[in-house]
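Reviewers of the previous submission asked for a worked example of the structure-prediction workflow described in the proposal, so we include one complete record here. The input consisted solely of the amino acid sequence. No template or homolog information was supplied to the procedure at any stage.
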Amino acid sequence: MAVAVQEPTTNVDYVAEAVLDIYRSHVEEATHMSLAEFIDSPRAVGSIRAIVAQDSHTIEVVLDGDSGTEMLSEVAWTVAARGWHLNVLVNLSRLGDAHTTLRGTPCTLQGWWFSDEMVRFSSHERP
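From that input alone, the workflow returned the following structure tokens.
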């Protein structure tokens, strides 16, 4: 007998869905996957959730409150070498730390937060 298990929805789930909605509104196809499905990466990085948009060659990485940004430096360089752009989405309260740890890497940062039960995004910033 199979038992259906429903995992609780996390903040990362809500943010990833909001990012996908933005791509859909621009009529661009984007896929939700783990980072390891896109590039060879260490296990800690490979499990991170990503939105991959083929047309714009953009990878949007959504970090939870426990994931460190420092591990994404190598990812940013690898992605850039392939001609893709990396955007790292972090909770707005962690944006300053992300600037510090990713300074000089070829990526952009974007903060997210909840307001009126909706996901909101800051503008893209260079670390």
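The longest helix spans residues 11-25. We consider this example representative of the routine output the project will generate in years two and three.
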